[in-house]
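Energy transducer TonB
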Amino acid sequence: MEPKKNPKADLRKNSGLYFVVGLAIVMLLVYAAFEWKTYDEVNEYDISLNVEDQLDEEVPMTEQIKTPPPPPPPAAPEVIEVVEDEEEVEETVIESTETSQEEEVIEIEDIEVEEVEEIEDVPFAVIEDVPVYPGCEGAKDKRACFNEMIQKHIRKNFRYPEIAQEMGIQGRVNVMFTIMTDGSIGNIRYRGPDKNLEAEALRIIEKLPKMTPGRQRGRAVRVPFSIPITFRLQ
């Protein structure tokens, strides 16, 4: 059976070629659409101001006139005192302090300087005449009387610090002081286990009375003395 259509009239024969050509045309149109640019209308004209050049005219220049400062006042004329020839003017004569060979040099005798003896500290244990505590003037052994009166003074004025009792603090405070040449008490030093005990020991020693100073070779000297004060809880 023969086909009814002519093979040359078959449109599907070149359909692939037509598709490729059409696709290429569409892509060109899309690219052209993306690349298409539009610009606003711009009037091309010069917007600068028209200023007439007046080069021929000279511009006057103003100069600042500076006024010169006033001249300084004239200096006062010096008063020149005229001395007449008849008037005698005293001249100041400066005598030379240099000695001539004719003058005799007087020798000055050596000046004697009295040596001031330094007051030394003499320990209580070795001093010749110990300090006398008030009330021990008539005692045979003034050294033993001194120690006894010191102990009596400490017992009489002793007060245990309340804060130390509450904290249970006890111990020994070593006190050192000096009986000065006028019999007063000075140079008090102390060391103990607690500042409250030290303060009480200082208070006791400061209450010591004024004494008769100790003597060494017939002159008053300072006598250092040390004594322990014991604080003990019962």
